[in-house]
Specification:
Radius of gyration: 20 Å
Oligomer: single chain
Number of strands: 19
Helix content: 10-25%
CATH architecture: Sandwich
CATH class: Mainly Beta
Shape: globular
């Protein structure tokens, strides 16, 4: 194969490739600088995204890498995460972290028009994502979390993520003016009455420690022991999965979701700060 010097960058000693990529599989609108990127970022930008017919700009790749560097101290607690960035639907449906569940989202209805880096993923009140995993596969009964970054909300149904099997509920869900949070408990667990916009995390780190956070601050807590994680119905985002019936579909935009093992107060603060800094780069922070 004949190589062109135009594909190389001259250093003080020799010419080196602009990019060293597995299989030279690039679907990116511009070249990246030489400094290395984290493996999670690399696998997302050059594996998951192009594998889902998506594309992403070099600038966004580096922004995602900055976010991943910021959350390195809690990376082991993040089992799935989507930042809703990229040039098209294929990129938006490619989570940055997918240690649990499939490498791409099961999407019953989102289209290209719902995807914009400046606004995030917009739901018209008819759509949701099946994240492809059951809560019983996530963490332990005393160590799980779910979170969602809600940018806008119109009407009575806001951001939701989770599932319910008729006995135990694992979710954060905003419905009719109240945000509910629970991890393996019956009925509603903890709740808050607010505007339904912001970064919400429901986290259980012990049998007697359930917390609901908004923008890095605990706003409700419960010391009652939980039950067991839901084993039957998969976790979904942007709607409520009640015994397999999808209701309360969000009308509004979201900028991220995540799931993993239990997050402490300091973990949630770190994650909120990282998400806020990332979303500010796109002027979509709340």
């Amino acid at each position: 194969m004949k190589l062109s010097r135009r594909r190389f960058v001259r250093t003080s000693l020799l010419y080196v490739p602009w990019l060293v990529l597995k299989g030279d599989k690039v679907n990116c609108s511009s070249f990246l600088p030489i400094p290395s990127i984290l493996d999670d970022t690399y696998q997302w930008a050059y594996g998951t995204v192009p594998g889902n017919s998506g594309s992403v700009s070099a600038q966004t790749v580096m922004r995602v890498n900055g976010f991943m560097q910021a959350v390195l101290p809690i990376r082991s607690k993040l089992s799935r995460l989507n930042l809703y960035v990229g040039n098209n639907l294929g990129a938006f449906m490619a989570p940055v972290i997918h240690d649990i569940g499939p490498s791409t989202e099961s999407n019953p209805g989102f289209i290209e028009a719902n995807c914009s880096e400046s606004t995030g993923l917009t739901n018209d009140g008819t759509k949701w994502l099946n994240l492809g995993f059951n809560m019983s596969s996530l963490g332990t009964d005393n160590s799980t979390h779910l979170g969602i970054y809600v940018r806008t909300k119109t009407g009575v149904f806001g951001g939701s993520i989770g599932t319910y099997d008729g006995t135990n509920v694992d979710y954060y869900s905003y419905q009719f003016g109240t945000g509910y949070g629970n991890m393996h408990g019956a009925v509603n667990g903890v709740s808050t009455v607010d505007g339904g916009v912001g970064h919400y995390v429901v986290s259980r780190i012990a049998s007697n420690d359930l917390q609901l956070y908004k923008n890095g601050i605990s706003i409700a807590s419960q010391a009652s022991p939980g039950g067991t994680r839901v084993t039957v119905y998969p976790v979904i985002a942007h709607a409520y999965n009640g015994i397999g019936v999808i209701t309360a579909k969000q009308l509004g935009a979201s900028a991220a979701y995540h799931a993993g093992t239990g997050l402490t107060s300091s973990d949630v603060t770190l994650l909120y700060n990282a998400l806020q800094a990332f979303n500010t780069l796109y002027s979509r922070q709340v």
